[in-house]
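Internal ticket - ligand job 239, nicotinamide-adenine-dinucleotide:
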Amino acid sequence: MKIALIGYGKMGHEIAQIALERGHEIVCTIDINEENKFTSPQFKSAEVAIEFTSPGSAMHNYRQAFAAGVAVVSGTTGWLEQLDEIRDACDKRGHTFFYASNFSLGVYIFTALNNYLAKIMNQFPGYDVQMEETHHIHKLDAPSGTAITLAEGILEKIERKSKWALNKSDAPDELQIKAFREGEVPGIHSVIYESEADIIRITHDAKNRKGLALGAVLAAEYTKGKKGFMTMQDMLGIL
Ligand SMILES: NC(=O)c1ccc[n+]([C@@H]2O[C@H](COP(=O)([O-])OP(=O)(O)OC[C@H]3O[C@@H](n4cnc5c(N)ncnc54)[C@H](O)[C@@H]3O)[C@@H](O)[C@H]2O)c1
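stdout (structure tokens):
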């Protein structure tokens, strides 16, 4: 496929490498202050743009790609309060958009495990639940998009929790998420259930960014010939 990259940072570079290994062509890269490239013939020739930038620029980039008639796969986190506008653009104007707060297969499996465990733990009020996430010091948003997705899965199943809270929790109905920023950690997520007797902990620990980048390229391949809003559930369907 002809792929454009919006954001050529850590993820952009990993994705470029995997896309080339899988026989794709990178027709355009757009990083910060390269706005003019959105109207270039190279960008318009792309079948899909893979977007990994920053929370504040993602929406603008999606609009620019849609205006150029290019499908978007995005992994940028921290913009989801504007999700409805993107869903609308897909439903009403026929755009193509694939979103995942985490593109790794391992995290997808971990999410399924988290949802199943939460369903079980709803029956055991003697256990309180909290979450921890650790990422590299350059990460702009907290908690991570992945932590929010995991938290939403827990809140849906555990009736004694009604909302998540970052780093401190004053109320028993709050699900506390502790966010740590350390060195160059690619991403660790833990869900911890604790009673007076014991602790049940599940953890996903990313060894590098390869799984994330591969997932984004597979998602780009999946969008070919499709319209609408898509997620990992559509592509993998195993949850
Ligand atoms: N969904 C996932 O699986 C997943 C995985 C890793 C990272 N992320 C998220 O993806 C985003 C990027 O992560 P990263 O590790 O590559 O960060 P990074 O800082 O290494 O790279 C971001 C790049 O985007 C560029 N950029 C910033 N504003 C831009 C704009 N307006 N137009 C074009 N380019 C712009 C920056 O110059 C930089 O090169 C973050 O939001 C991060 O949380 C998601």
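Auto-summary: The chain has two domains: 2-103+210-236, 105-205. Residues 105-121 form the longest helix (17 residues).
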